[in-house]
Amino acid sequence: MSFFAKLNDLHKKTDLKTDFLPEAIKQQYRKIDQLPLFIQQYLISRVSLGYSKQTIQRYIYDYHYFFHYVKRVSEDPSFQPAAVTLKDFLQIEKAAIEHYITYLSLEVENEPRTINRKISALQSLFDYLVKKGETTTNPVLGVERPKVGKRDPVFLTINEAQLLLKAVKDTSSLSFRQKKYAEKLLARDYAVIYLLISSGLRISELANVKMKDFDKEENILKVQGKGNKERSIPLSYETIDVLTYYLDSLPIKSRPKQSEDHLFIGYDFQSQEYTKQVTVSALQKMIQRQLHRAKQYAPSLQHKTITAHKLRHSFATALVAKGVDVLTVQSLLGHESVATTQVYAHVQDDARKEAITRLSIS
């Protein structure tokens, strides 16, 4: 095989220091302790540089996926990622990366964006090893990557967004048992979806908002974006009313009060108790349930694949449609590059076409 000179030796035990990772890091990042020591060191360096928890965890999963591929092609059932030595790993060549891309594309049928993300994780790791002087070459550089076609973002129209919020409030179609539990979090679910549509927050950003970040006096919400970059989102009076109503709807003993308390709480249906924080996964599932129910109000949703992130697209698209300049939208979304925000220019294109159709010189 071209990617490892001696793939059958990779399963041998090495003298890795099993106590390298602090216990807090092991608890925070799933499967990080199952990776080779040199990758653990790389990930710790990214944590120290302020990379977000979501980015680090995504790297971990991507590295595990790569080693899953190595185990598959090596046909060695005893292969373990943690046993891979730096010396063996550095025998990877460009041809190996190209073969991995082929595998991801043709066998796994990953989308180009997903493939590029997995390859970028490897490139970043090799960049780190080059800077540390462990190697002089990065085999990922120069590898031809799949082309990502430009796609207009999927979004909700203003009318569809209004119908979605209406569906959240309407529990008439639910069974008695469903209604009983839904009403415990009705105000929270409405506030979550309303805030996503009206602020453009990422779902992970919303889940991590704390009470200290919600400033009623200044009408702003402070969020930690990618790379732990903080930005302030102006809130309308209507949004503040929605959030205040949600907080007031909670039982006093479960209501977040302290500055470090999370703004959005969860509910454990087994213990039938409110929890101090809601997970991103729980929010995503809730949003999908509400979107499914909303299809009875808005038939157009039958033909759209809407996710929590698409609500962020809806916010940006609505702003551009109202004539807000791209730089302002970039700032509100927390995009590092305006090129990322430029995807919403399709709305301006539609506006230009409409302007021309209205022009009559005859």
Structure characterization notes:
- Helices cover 51% and strands 5% of the residues.
- It has 362 residues and is mostly helical.
- The protein folds into 2 domains: 7-131, no CATH class; 159-305, Intergrase catalytic core (hpI Integrase, Chain A, Orthogonal Bundle), CATH 1.10.443.
- The chain has a 3-stranded antiparallel β-sheet, with no helix packed on it.
- A hairpin with a 4-residue loop joins strand 4 (266-268) and strand 5 (273-275).
- The N and C termini lie far apart (71 Å).
- The model is unreliable at 10-18 (pLDDT under 50).
- Keywords: DNA recombination, DNA-binding.
- Residues 151-358 form the Tyr recombinase domain.
- This is Integrase family protein.
